[in-house]
Each structure stands twice: as C-alpha cells, then as structure tokens.
# Entry
Amino acid sequence: MANVRLMTAETGSAMQELRGYARPRSRSVAVVVLIGCFGAACAPGEPSERTVDVAAELSAAAPVDTARFYAQQVMNSLGGKEAWDRTRYVSYRWLVEREGAVVADRQHAWDRYEGRVRVEFEQRDSTHLMLFNVNELREIPDLGPVPAGRAWIGDRELIGANRDAALRRGYSVFINDSYWALMPFKWEDPGVHLAYEGIRTLSDGNGYAVIHLTFDEGLGVSEDQYWGFVDPTTGRMAAWQYLLGTDTEPGDVIWWEDPTVVGSLRFPMNRVRDGGGRFIYFDDVVMSTTVPTGRFDPPSP
# Structure
C-alpha cells in the first residue's frame, strides 16, 4: 500500500511542520507502571499502579529481546494489553493549535472490532462527514487505497469520483490522526518491527531507552520510521521522533504529556514541541468496550 500522507489547507502537513527548541523538564523519582485493574481492590474500569524496578527486570530478562521488553512495559504503562484488547470503541477530537488559535478540529470514532470509522470536520463553513470501513479497501488509479463507504458535504451526499476522493481523504486523516493518538498502543501490531538502540539523553537531562519502529508494506506508514523514547523507570513512552519517507533527517522530539485515565486505559492528552508549547491535543476522548447506538449510522435525510 502506498504511504498515506496528510495534507490539509488548514494545517499544511501536520506530520512535517514540527520544529522546536530544547526546554527544561522535571522528572519524578517515583517508579510506577500502570497495569490493568481486574481485582476487587481497584475501582472498576480504572488502571491501577504498582511499583516496579524496570532496570532490574530488564537485567533479569537479558536473554529476551530488549525492544519487546520495552514494548511490554509501554503497554503496561497505558493500562495493559488485556484492557486494550477489550476496548472496542475509541473516539476523540484531534485539535491543532497555532499561536493560541485552533486551526484544525476533527472528530473521530472507530469500532476497532469491525473496522467502522466516522470522520467529521468543518471546512469552508461546511461539515464534511465520511463513514467507511478500514477493512474494506480497493485500489483506485491516481488515488491509491480507498475504503468502502459514504461521504457528505453538508446535507449533500457525494457520489462517483467526488465520493472516492472524499473517502480517500478521510482514510488519510484517519491514519494520520489515529497514529498521533494511539501510537504507543500499536507497537506490537502485526507488521511492526522494533529495534532497541540504547539510551539517549533528551533535553530534560534524563536518559531514555530508544526503540526504533519500522513497518511492513500495507500499514499506511510503511515508508516512515519512528523512535519512541521510553522512561526506563516507569515504562511510559515520554516522547517520539520520526522520519517521513522522503525526508533525510528526523524531525525534532515531540513530548507526549498529560496521561489521563480514560475508561480502563491511560491516554496522553497533549503533544508538546521540544522547547515550545502544546500544538496538538485531544478532547472528548472515549475508550469503551461498547459502541454507542447509532454512532456509525448515516445522517437522517
């Protein structure tokens, strides 16, 4: 599958405009890893915390793949694989902020079990709505992979080539925005390759385990490379960096901040430039085991 690239009039390329400067950060000395909460001692549906010596566990696990070890720690810090596997429905607003003003605001809903997706945003005073299934793709010349679905601008349903172009854009938006939202949950997906590249000191003066992610063809990001920076004391992915397919150097580090309990998981709400302020953030986040009735239904005539 050709690599998906998001280009919008509102934001330019949201994946390519990331530049910043070093900034100081503080770090707690507490060593905490989040795990799924299934026992009676925990509040229902919320992740719990436990103290763990990650370095000691890594030393004991020396014969195993170090990158996979850290991938497991990252997933544990988010609430655990079992909690993620039980999460069928994910929805959120993806917002881009520039100089204090919101320049992009897109609403997403995803049925992870059935592949149903809803993408909605405002552009040129009109509502754009796409309903499609990411498990049902077809190749269209000059467009690439296009999901089966329907699309509307305002109350007008699109047909033919206009529908296909809108669905292609909706699919591109879904791939881009969902990776900004959910990348740490997806390290062990099929077709993702992990490599441990040692410890790197970032601008906060702390050392982070560096995990390099590359991808098989057909995943929508196959030409790109990512680096996740894992706090070795908590197992949490604190930041990322990426190299898009045609670029020659990685962009600057982006911090994933404000991890917040949502359902049975923990979701980082803000993406912060190294040395700068928040520029992408999330609102109205829902992570649930059930799909709201009618969420993927077409609009009423």
